[in-house]
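Consider the following assembly input.
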Amino acid sequence: MSDNRAQFRPPNHPTDSFLLTTVVGSYPKPKWLNRAEELTDDEEYDFDETHLGEAHDDACRLITNEHERAGLDAVVDGEMRRNEMVEFFAHRIDGYEFNGPVKVWGHNYFDKPSVAEEVEYDEPWLVDEFEFTTGVTDRPVKVPITGPYTLANWAFNEAYESEEELAYDLADLVNEEIERLVDAGARYIQIDEPALATTPDDHAIVGECLEHIVAGIPDDVRIGLHVCYGDYSRIYPEMLEYPVDEYDLELANGNYEQLDVFTADEFTKDLALGVVDAHVAEVESVAEIKENIKRGFEVVPPQRLTVSPDCGLKLLPREVAYAKMENMVQAAREVEAELDAGKIDVGYAGTQAPADD
Amino acid sequence: MTELVATTPGLFPLPDWAKDRLSDLKGHQKSDLIAGDETGELAETYDDVRTELVETQIDAGLDRVTEGQGRWDDMLAHPLTVHDSVETRGIVRYYDNNNFYREPVVAGDLTPGGDVAQELEAAATQTDDLQAVLPGPYTLAELATNEHYADRSAFLNAVAEFLAGEVAEFPAHETLFLLEPSLVEDAPEDGFDALASEAIDAVAEATDAEVVVHPFYGALDEKVYAHLMDADVDAIGFDLVANHEQNVYNVQEYGTKDSVALGVVDGQNTLVEDPETVRERFEWFDSQIPAQEFDTVYLTSNTELFYLPVNKAEAKAETLANAADLEEVTQ
């Protein structure tokens, strides 16, 4: 296993133990940004794409700083420039077209794109935003990218014989994008594959996609995979074969009922454990989050545990999202100190503790 | 001589203006969805929606016209989610789709409601080619949770009786489509398959119109199909888009009714088929069943159309109408 985790440890980290703290990616947009997006190109207002670009820059600066203030080790810009996780990329990839919104449920709609011809790489997707974000923070910046399986599964496929072939072509484009991001300095990439949760039988297709994605990417680039809530037993332990360093899993929401899935077979990669619930607006206490973090030691030792919310925080009120991050980081720092002091005797943390303590 | 009839299983996407206006009027939360007691501006908006959806179908040239089911927020669960004896709980996945509906929980007697009949009365003023659409009893029972009736068969019978009561209120209609995707997706087990067919019978008896039972998302298990053949309906539907081979096998093995409905246009993909392609799909099916000359062949999309953006749903309706009107191709 490549040890590409040490690079995210802050230079003056106060404890020997280090739990990498980060977020999945999305974050509540400030209300003014939503309004700005609505007003763009409305003839009544003098507010165009250039103004919106400025607003996006400001929002990215603001939210990256908010992540810094919460104390996260690896930050994200909160995906302020993205509207929806498929739409954003589909607008940047040749071959997609948009025909109008489709129903998800009730009066909630999704601008589901169609793949009308073979997909091709056109303009860079994320390099500009990555460069902007690294320019406004000293912390390492994580880049979340919607995975090719989800980009294929959440679109109408008009052009390919099968969704699988479309997914592999998209995986090659993701690979190209990651190469550019790496050239720009990115060292932490997260592939988001929420569609895998609903179609677990396709786990082998996701695996093949990931092989395409990591081809030629240097080992010092950390690759994570985020899969939201689903029945993980349908994809575990098979998913351990995927060529990624870290799995980011949603487990707090289910009260860690699925933790047994990951202890039945040895978890051989790093675990990014969801320790705060992204779907509940109550802020978990530091004490509660510390207990959640310790659940992770039942699966992996501390040096392979990343601490993260369950999922993107964008649906929460902003102050709740912030408080969850702040408590999460404080909980991680307290657990680190307790690990140093040999006070934690849970699972792999216990076996790693000094023998004479 | 076989008559080709272009139609759809209904459930059209809302016009885009209505998506905006209705969500402004109703809200985005699950508690904001339709309860069946709309008044004022909301009721007027729905009247406008229905009028437009009917016009769209007439303009497309379809031979059967539905009321469009613009009010069916919960898709095929709608007739229950607006019922007084039903409470709605969390949102649950609609088959294997990225769509969700409110789970209807039946907590009291399923007395006749009349919700669907009202819409049809209004649509009947615009067309003489009215087609009623309902979930089949097995599907509606499977989509719901029963907390009132003694057991599963009692519940299925109650749902069938409820649907029959709805049908009895309908204005004159040419065709009744009973949509039964659950017969494919959650196939009834041995013994229950016979009950499912009897339940369909009970609904079909309530109308003098042609009754089409349309399962989709694939083909029926052959035992389920064999039982469905016992139901006294005029046609069974076959989703040739999702699984043409098993569907043709079922017909070759167990026969079919005098008429047939063929899902020849993909209701879940934006790629718009040519009328010629649709025609070829019908002719392929016809050639596989050489012993039978069908009375009526309903050419339809395999699924409801709400999965599609508006422009594509309309284009699919036109394709079906044009396919039915093409000059017969010599074989």
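The mean pLDDT of chain B is 96. Ask yourself how this observation constrains the way the partners meet.
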